[in-house]
Write a structure and sequence with these properties.
HAD-like_sf, metal ion binding, metal-binding, alpha/beta, 3 domains, about 55% helix
Length: about 675
């Protein structure tokens, strides 16, 4: 750069023309990759049902077509003509409709800006020389051959905080003249009324920035950027899948460093869940989401962060709300009269139950329970195999005190919940409601649907669906990372194996909502188990803060990778296999601490998580099944090392974890790659 300074002085330059790419800034990727990133952003923000390749190659072909049709240099192609041509092609393919023309044009430039910002970094040496030249009274103009408009470059200069250095911007697509043909130089000289011998053009292209500039009478300086040009060519190699794999693998390794709490890699699942949720919202035109407690609080934090990072149009912001609800509270707002209520969830969930446990579910006051005790002589603590068909419960249903308390309780809960949900300011009865939670079947979704007398559409979006209820057209539910609907596939078997850990690591700082009542200026009555509170304060808060930090790393690291959701599913599977099979002592001890405080909302009989494993796993018949379809046994494999650690340390230490992991990978490769064309095997042996 010493030569550039010397030339500025020797030629007594008063005006400096500078190129943009590989002069002022460099890109971390190949130039064509920027178009792919732009395509990725547009597809996401417009909610298009299309691949990145669909949009990228449409853009490339549109340019070639217009250049041939208009008989012009591609750098002189008007930006609006290009956008119109791309839109026409996508519209003809039913990828966009007529009503999207204006928003497509608006978001196209914003997507391009976002893509460019994500890959650019300043050439500080060049910027410093321009700064010095400007300080000495020189005039500086940006001159670039590019299909984008000058407004794009204005925004990029502001992004880099160097817009103050430039007196004006000349872009080939705006003026219809280019450096490539040499026509832009005379246009600018005439526009500025400046003599050419007072001007120096700096850039990296021999023809455009040097030869044509000197033909127009300007001085020129060719930037010595062969290394960057060589790097650009090298960036055209590689694959999206490998880039994604390396990115996720690096994050996994970072999370498993000794300085971090165990299992922070679970943020990888959460991150891609909120990404898929965001995309679905854009595709379906969803503009508001209700995240359900308690796991929804952390999921909302991640979603809000994802949206802030990626959105390019604040007018299209998805409103997010956090609503305190639980299975216990949700069931209470949906209770029918005592004669009509079947208590189907409680029947299904608990084989046995006592009347006092039933009262606990209703969260009855001690005075109300006493009034029932005083008027009804039954065994309140005796466990009944089917409480709701028992003689004791039939007697309870005839008790006047209980009926009065039950009806008042139901009425109060419904009234307060109605006021609570209206406080969010959404037109739920008109637009329906979209609820978001960890999973696993949709109990709270069903309860909210019943609360609105089955007249309001309640759609559920879950990290996973692990239980089949009876979804209808108004209660559709979607497991975005795994689902047993419409059927259980390989990935779902792997990803649902440790379902309870998704819940544990996303716990909230507050207690479980057990009732809706106007207390302390709020709408909820909560119970916070002391074990859970201790675990959150001492472990999970730090765990979540670290996961959030890693989530932000993922946002940045994934920005330049043009991956598909099929690639994501593969990487989620890889993470689940490694995380589930290769459990070290740190992880096992950490889970042991958390599991001791895992509180089951509706039961006072159970705390913690059982890790029972069938005893017949190693008999020949079961072992052959395992060899054929190991994914169906993964829910036992992930518990095996914890079981061995607690029962037989010798077996724990000799457990061949890497061998098991290797077999899972080999099995997947053989079935889904090597043998995928032998279709009958899939139908006859692997399903």
């Amino acid at each position: 750069m010493i030569q550039l300074k010397k030339k500025l002085q020797e030629k007594k330059v008063e005006v400096l023309f500078t190129d943009y790419y590989d002069t002022l800034v460099h890109r971390r990727v190949h130039p064509n990759q920027v178009l792919r990133i732009c395509s990725k952003i547009l597809i996401k923000e417009l909610g298009l049902i299309a691949s990145i390749d669909d949009l990228y190659f449409t853009l490339k072909d549109a340019v070639n077509h217009l250049v041939e049709k208009l008989k012009i240099d591609r750098n002189e192609l008007a930006y609006k003509k290009l956008i119109d041509e791309v839109f026409t092609r996508l519209n003809n393919a039913n990828i966009v409709d007529d009503s999207q023309k204006h928003v497509f044009a608006t978001l196209f430039e914003k997507a391009q800006l976002k893509a460019e910002q994500s890959v650019q970094y300043l050439n500080k040496n060049t910027v410093q020389i321009i700064q010095d030249f400007k300080n000495e009274g020189g005039k500086v103009y940006l001159v670039s051959d590019f299909y984008g408009p000058s407004s794009l470059f204005n925004a990029l200069l502001k992004h880099h905080n160097i817009d103050h250095l430039f007196d004006a911007i000349y872009i080939s697509s705006d003026v219809g003249k280019s450096k490539h043909k040499g026509s832009i130089y005379q246009f600018i000289l005439s526009d500025l009324a400046v003599e050419p011998h007072k001007v120096l053009m700096i850039g990296d292209n021999l023809r455009s920035d040097s030869i044509h500039a000197e033909k127009a009478g300007l001085h020129s300086f060719l930037m010595p950027h062969k290394n960057h040009l060589r790097k650009n060519k090298m960036n055209s190699f590689g694959s999206d899948g490998n880039q994604l794999r390396n990115c996720v693998s690096d994050i996994y390794d970072y999370c498993n460093q000794k300085d971090n709490l165990p299992y922070t890699e679970y943020v990888i699942y959460y991150h891609f869940f909120v990404e898929r949720l965001y995309k679905i919202c854009k595709v379906q035109g969803i503009d508001s989401l209700f995240f359900l407690s308690r796991e929804g609080l952390f999921l909302k934090r991640l979603f809000d962060s994802y949206q802030t990072f990626h959105q390019i149009d604040s007018d299209k912001n998805i409103r997010t709300h956090y609503i305190k609800v639980s299975r216990q509270a949700a069931l209470q707002i949906s209770l029918k009269s005592i004669d009509d209520e079947e208590f189907s969830y409680l029947r299904k969930k608990y084989d046995s139950m006592s009347l006092n446990e039933f009262f606990k579910f209703l969260n009855l006051k001690e005075t109300d329970k006493k009034s029932i005790y005083d008027t009804l002589d039954v065994e309140y603590d005796t466990l009944e195999l089917d409480l709701f068909e028992s003689k004791q419960f039939k007697k309870l249903k005839k008790n006047a005190h209980f009926l009065k308390i039950y009806e008042a309780h139901c009425k109060s809960n419904r009234a307060v919940f109605k006021e609570y949900i209206q406080s969010f300011g959404e037109d739920i009865e008109g637009d329906g409601i979209n609820v978001v939670d960890i999973g696993w079947g949709g109990t709270m979704q069903e309860a909210i649907y019943k609360f609105f007398d089955e007249k309001v559409k309640v759609t559920g979006f879950y990290l996973g669906i692990n239980t089949i209820y009876s979804p209808n057209n108004n209660t559709k539910r979607h497991g975005l990372n795994f689902s047993i609907l419409p059927y259980v596939d390989y990935d779902s078997n792997i990803l649902r194996a440790n379902a309870q850990q998704y819940e544990q690591f996303a716990s909230a700082s507050h207690g479980t909502c057990i009732e809706y009542s106007k207390v302390d200026g709020g709408y909820t009555v909560e119970f916070h188990d002391e074990n859970e509170k201790y675990l959150y304060d001492n472990y999970l808060k730090e765990h979540q803060d670290k996961m959030f930090e890693v989530h932000q790393k993922l946002l940045k690291n994934l920005e330049m990778i043009c991956y598909s959701q099929e690639m994501v599913s593969t990487e989620l599977n890889n993470v689940a296999l490694k995380s589930g099979i290769l459990q070290n002592i740190r992880k096992i001890k950490f889970l042991k601490i958390l599991n001791a405080g895992y509180y089951q909302n509706l039961s006072n009989k159970k705390t913690g998580i059982d890790y029972e494993i069938p005893k017949n796993l190693l008999n020949p018949k079961e072992f052959i099944k395992f060899l054929m379809k190991p994914e169906e046994y993964f829910r036992y494999i992930v518990k095996l090392k914890q079981k061995l650690y607690n029962s037989n340390r010798v077996l724990y230490y000799i457990f061949p974890g890497y061998l098991v992991l290797g077999y899972y990978r080999l099995n997947r490769f053989l079935r889904f790659r090597a043998l995928r064309n032998v279709s009958l095997l899939k139908y006859n042996y692997f399903r």
